[in-house]
Amino acid sequence: MRGLFLVLLFLAGCRYAFLPLDPGKPPPPSRPFLVARLQPEGEEAGLALRVERLASPGYLHLKWYRGEALLLERALFLEGPGVYRLRLPLGEGYHRLLGLWGGELLFQLDLGTPLLPDPDEEEDQGQGQEG
How many domains does one find in the chain? Predict the structure, then answer.
């Protein structure tokens, strides 16, 4: 019984000796939050971009590809939350749009189906040459 009393006395002395520090309000994320939709519209593709959160104004770099070929490169200045629209040339085949903010990829949108590599075509797999 005496041991139990000493343990309870010891536990009663275990209290916070300081107040918990308030870390304050965390800073807002620096990465923008946006919703992008790409839809074919005849001979063009229509990009609808809705910006929900933007820490500061800046340029959204857009790269428009057909297959592996870069067709178009544009910079769209985003001032703040809102809706932005852009039209892109559309041809036959697979198209891909990359959106970069500060050099980092924000999104990739695809139209069409990418072609698979030809299995009969020999490809260098990085193996050493025998000789």
Answer: 1
Show the tokens assigned to 122.
């020999």
DSSP 95-118: EEEEEEETTEEEEEEEES-PPPPP
pLDDT in tens for each of the 131 residues of the chain? 778 777 776 766 656 555 666 677 777 777 889 999 999 998 999 999 999 998 889 999 999 999 889 999 999 999 989 999 999 999 888 999 999 998 899 999 999 887 777 777 665 555 555 54
Give a yes or no: residue 127 inside a domain.
Answer: no
Q: Is 93 within a domain? A: yes
Note whether residue 18 is domain-resident.
no
| Domain that includes residue 81, residue range | 33-111
